[in-house]
Amino acid sequence: MARSFSLVDQKLAEADFFLKKLKEAGFDFFATRCYASAFTTAARSVTYAIQAVMKPVPGFKDWYTQRQKELQADPTARFFHLLRTISHHVGDNLVSGGSGGPNQPTRYWFMPTKDLPEVPQEDVVTACEQYMVMLVDLVYRCYTDFGPEINSHQHYTAEHFAKLGKTIEDAEEELFGVRGWTEVPGYSEDYRWQAIRDSLVGCEIDHLFMEYIGKEAPRPAGPDQTNVPIQCD
User: Fold this and answer.
1) What domain of life is recorded for the organism (predicted)?
2) What CA–CA distance (Å, rounded) separates 72 from 130?
Protein backbone atom coordinates (compact mmCIF):
# COMPACT_ATOMS: atom_id res chain seq x y z
CA MET A 1 0.00 0.00 0.00
CA ALA A 2 1.12 3.55 -0.69
CA ARG A 3 0.11 4.67 2.83
CA SER A 4 0.54 2.96 6.20
CA PHE A 5 -2.52 1.80 8.13
CA SER A 6 -0.95 3.49 11.15
CA LEU A 7 -2.67 6.65 9.85
CA VAL A 8 -5.99 5.01 10.73
CA ASP A 9 -4.69 3.82 14.10
CA GLN A 10 -3.55 7.34 14.94
CA LYS A 11 -6.85 8.96 13.97
CA LEU A 12 -8.78 6.47 16.09
CA ALA A 13 -6.42 7.13 19.01
CA GLU A 14 -6.97 10.87 18.51
CA ALA A 15 -10.74 10.42 18.73
CA ASP A 16 -10.28 8.40 21.90
CA PHE A 17 -8.09 11.14 23.39
CA PHE A 18 -10.74 13.81 22.90
CA LEU A 19 -13.51 11.52 24.13
CA LYS A 20 -11.62 10.97 27.38
CA LYS A 21 -11.06 14.71 27.72
CA LEU A 22 -14.79 15.22 27.13
CA LYS A 23 -15.61 12.85 29.98
CA GLU A 24 -13.26 14.75 32.30
CA ALA A 25 -14.65 18.22 31.46
CA GLY A 26 -17.27 18.12 34.24
CA PHE A 27 -18.92 21.51 34.88
CA ASP A 28 -16.69 23.29 32.35
CA PHE A 29 -19.25 23.96 29.63
CA PHE A 30 -16.79 25.65 27.27
CA ALA A 31 -14.35 22.74 27.54
CA THR A 32 -17.20 20.30 26.94
CA ARG A 33 -18.15 22.06 23.73
CA CYS A 34 -14.53 22.21 22.57
CA TYR A 35 -13.83 18.55 23.24
CA ALA A 36 -17.12 17.43 21.70
CA SER A 37 -16.24 19.38 18.56
CA ALA A 38 -12.70 17.99 18.49
CA PHE A 39 -13.96 14.45 19.00
CA THR A 40 -16.42 14.82 16.14
CA THR A 41 -13.70 16.05 13.79
CA ALA A 42 -11.24 13.31 14.72
CA ALA A 43 -13.89 10.60 14.66
CA ARG A 44 -15.14 11.58 11.22
CA SER A 45 -11.55 11.53 9.97
CA VAL A 46 -11.28 7.82 10.76
CA THR A 47 -13.43 6.71 7.82
CA TYR A 48 -11.66 9.12 5.46
CA ALA A 49 -8.29 7.73 6.57
CA ILE A 50 -9.53 4.17 6.00
CA GLN A 51 -10.56 5.00 2.45
CA ALA A 52 -7.31 6.83 1.67
CA VAL A 53 -5.14 3.99 3.00
CA MET A 54 -7.16 1.04 1.75
CA LYS A 55 -8.11 2.30 -1.72
CA PRO A 56 -5.45 0.21 -3.57
CA VAL A 57 -6.26 -3.02 -1.70
CA PRO A 58 -8.10 -5.62 -3.84
CA GLY A 59 -11.65 -6.19 -2.63
CA PHE A 60 -11.76 -3.11 -0.42
CA LYS A 61 -14.14 -1.09 -2.60
CA ASP A 62 -16.95 -3.66 -2.41
CA TRP A 63 -16.21 -4.32 1.26
CA TYR A 64 -16.43 -0.64 2.17
CA THR A 65 -19.59 -0.07 0.14
CA GLN A 66 -21.33 -2.51 2.45
CA ARG A 67 -19.84 -0.88 5.55
CA GLN A 68 -21.06 2.52 4.32
CA LYS A 69 -24.59 1.19 3.99
CA GLU A 70 -24.44 -0.04 7.57
CA LEU A 71 -23.25 3.35 8.85
CA GLN A 72 -25.80 5.26 6.79
CA ALA A 73 -28.57 3.13 8.27
CA ASP A 74 -27.52 3.95 11.83
CA PRO A 75 -29.04 7.14 13.35
CA THR A 76 -26.00 7.89 15.54
CA ALA A 77 -23.55 7.55 12.65
CA ARG A 78 -25.76 9.74 10.45
CA PHE A 79 -25.96 12.36 13.18
CA PHE A 80 -22.19 12.67 13.57
CA HIS A 81 -21.77 12.81 9.81
CA LEU A 82 -24.14 15.79 9.64
CA LEU A 83 -22.75 17.35 12.82
CA ARG A 84 -19.23 17.42 11.37
CA THR A 85 -20.53 18.99 8.17
CA ILE A 86 -22.37 21.74 10.06
CA SER A 87 -19.45 22.35 12.38
CA HIS A 88 -17.02 22.61 9.47
CA HIS A 89 -19.11 24.64 7.04
CA VAL A 90 -21.31 26.70 9.38
CA GLY A 91 -19.40 26.79 12.66
CA ASP A 92 -22.37 25.82 14.84
CA ASN A 93 -21.84 23.75 17.99
CA LEU A 94 -24.94 21.80 19.07
CA VAL A 95 -23.82 20.98 22.62
CA SER A 96 -26.37 22.63 24.89
CA GLY A 97 -27.15 22.96 28.58
CA GLY A 98 -26.75 20.13 31.03
CA SER A 99 -27.41 18.97 34.54
CA GLY A 100 -25.44 17.67 37.48
CA GLY A 101 -24.80 17.99 41.16
CA PRO A 102 -22.51 16.97 44.02
CA ASN A 103 -23.69 13.36 43.85
CA GLN A 104 -24.65 13.24 40.20
CA PRO A 105 -22.57 13.14 37.03
CA THR A 106 -22.60 16.24 34.85
CA ARG A 107 -24.43 15.64 31.58
CA TYR A 108 -25.00 17.74 28.49
CA TRP A 109 -27.24 17.25 25.47
CA PHE A 110 -27.19 18.13 21.80
CA MET A 111 -29.68 20.84 20.86
CA PRO A 112 -31.77 20.48 17.66
CA THR A 113 -31.38 23.25 15.12
CA LYS A 114 -32.84 24.13 11.73
CA ASP A 115 -29.80 22.54 10.06
CA LEU A 116 -29.93 19.40 12.18
CA PRO A 117 -33.42 18.90 13.67
CA GLU A 118 -32.89 15.30 14.82
CA VAL A 119 -30.34 14.73 17.58
CA PRO A 120 -29.58 11.73 19.83
CA GLN A 121 -31.77 11.29 22.88
CA GLU A 122 -28.69 10.23 24.82
CA ASP A 123 -26.45 12.76 26.53
CA VAL A 124 -23.37 14.03 24.67
CA VAL A 125 -20.85 11.64 26.25
CA THR A 126 -23.05 8.58 25.74
CA ALA A 127 -23.73 9.46 22.10
CA CYS A 128 -20.02 10.01 21.46
CA GLU A 129 -19.19 6.69 23.12
CA GLN A 130 -21.72 4.91 20.92
CA TYR A 131 -20.16 6.39 17.79
CA MET A 132 -16.66 5.54 19.03
CA VAL A 133 -17.67 1.90 19.46
CA MET A 134 -18.89 1.81 15.85
CA LEU A 135 -15.59 3.20 14.60
CA VAL A 136 -13.49 0.85 16.72
CA ASP A 137 -15.52 -2.08 15.40
CA LEU A 138 -15.07 -0.84 11.82
CA VAL A 139 -11.30 -0.61 12.20
CA TYR A 140 -11.23 -3.99 13.92
CA ARG A 141 -13.02 -5.50 10.91
CA CYS A 142 -10.29 -4.06 8.70
CA TYR A 143 -7.76 -5.98 10.78
CA THR A 144 -9.76 -9.20 10.57
CA ASP A 145 -10.70 -9.00 6.88
CA PHE A 146 -7.53 -7.42 5.46
CA GLY A 147 -4.99 -8.29 8.15
CA PRO A 148 -2.06 -9.40 5.94
CA GLU A 149 -2.44 -6.22 3.87
CA ILE A 150 -2.39 -3.76 6.79
CA ASN A 151 -0.76 -5.42 9.80
CA SER A 152 2.92 -6.32 9.61
CA HIS A 153 2.46 -9.02 12.25
CA GLN A 154 -0.15 -10.72 10.07
CA HIS A 155 1.77 -10.03 6.86
CA TYR A 156 5.08 -11.59 7.83
CA THR A 157 4.06 -15.20 8.33
CA ALA A 158 5.10 -18.39 6.59
CA GLU A 159 1.51 -18.96 5.44
CA HIS A 160 1.08 -15.54 3.85
CA PHE A 161 4.45 -15.59 2.10
CA ALA A 162 3.72 -19.08 0.80
CA LYS A 163 0.57 -17.68 -0.83
CA LEU A 164 2.75 -15.02 -2.45
CA GLY A 165 5.16 -17.66 -3.70
CA LYS A 166 7.91 -16.26 -1.49
CA THR A 167 10.16 -17.53 1.30
CA ILE A 168 11.46 -16.21 4.59
CA GLU A 169 14.64 -15.14 2.82
CA ASP A 170 12.50 -12.93 0.56
CA ALA A 171 10.96 -11.37 3.67
CA GLU A 172 14.39 -10.73 5.16
CA GLU A 173 15.66 -9.11 1.99
CA GLU A 174 12.49 -7.01 1.76
CA LEU A 175 12.86 -5.69 5.31
CA PHE A 176 16.57 -5.74 6.10
CA GLY A 177 18.28 -6.04 2.73
CA VAL A 178 20.02 -9.22 3.89
CA ARG A 179 18.89 -12.76 3.13
CA GLY A 180 19.40 -15.03 6.12
CA TRP A 181 19.29 -12.16 8.64
CA THR A 182 17.40 -14.33 11.18
CA GLU A 183 19.27 -17.56 10.50
CA VAL A 184 20.68 -18.76 13.82
CA PRO A 185 21.97 -22.29 14.45
CA GLY A 186 19.41 -24.32 16.37
CA TYR A 187 16.47 -22.04 15.64
CA SER A 188 13.58 -23.29 13.52
CA GLU A 189 11.93 -21.26 10.78
CA ASP A 190 9.02 -20.56 13.17
CA TYR A 191 11.44 -18.72 15.45
CA ARG A 192 12.90 -16.85 12.50
CA TRP A 193 9.45 -15.60 11.50
CA GLN A 194 8.81 -14.58 15.10
CA ALA A 195 12.10 -12.66 15.17
CA ILE A 196 10.99 -10.75 12.08
CA ARG A 197 7.62 -9.88 13.65
CA ASP A 198 9.28 -8.86 16.92
CA SER A 199 11.27 -6.24 15.01
CA LEU A 200 8.07 -4.63 13.69
CA VAL A 201 5.40 -2.49 15.36
CA GLY A 202 2.22 -4.26 14.24
CA CYS A 203 -1.17 -3.06 15.49
CA GLU A 204 -0.88 0.09 17.63
CA ILE A 205 -4.41 0.17 19.05
CA ASP A 206 -5.04 -3.21 20.66
CA HIS A 207 -5.78 -1.34 23.89
CA LEU A 208 -8.67 0.46 22.17
CA PHE A 209 -10.05 -2.78 20.78
CA MET A 210 -10.02 -4.25 24.29
CA GLU A 211 -11.49 -1.13 25.91
CA TYR A 212 -14.39 -0.60 23.52
CA ILE A 213 -15.26 -4.02 22.07
CA GLY A 214 -13.37 -6.50 24.24
CA LYS A 215 -11.27 -7.96 21.42
CA GLU A 216 -7.66 -8.08 20.25
CA ALA A 217 -6.36 -7.77 16.72
CA PRO A 218 -5.70 -11.17 15.12
CA ARG A 219 -2.11 -12.26 15.39
CA PRO A 220 -0.18 -15.38 14.37
CA ALA A 221 0.57 -17.95 17.02
CA GLY A 222 4.11 -17.84 18.30
CA PRO A 223 6.48 -20.79 18.05
CA ASP A 224 6.08 -23.74 20.38
CA GLN A 225 7.79 -22.62 23.57
CA THR A 226 8.56 -26.22 24.53
CA ASN A 227 11.04 -26.34 21.67
CA VAL A 228 13.10 -23.32 22.72
CA PRO A 229 16.76 -24.24 22.27
CA ILE A 230 18.74 -24.34 25.51
CA GLN A 231 22.03 -22.48 25.40
CA CYS A 232 24.66 -23.52 27.89
CA ASP A 233 27.57 -21.37 28.96
Assistant:
1) Bacteria
2) 15
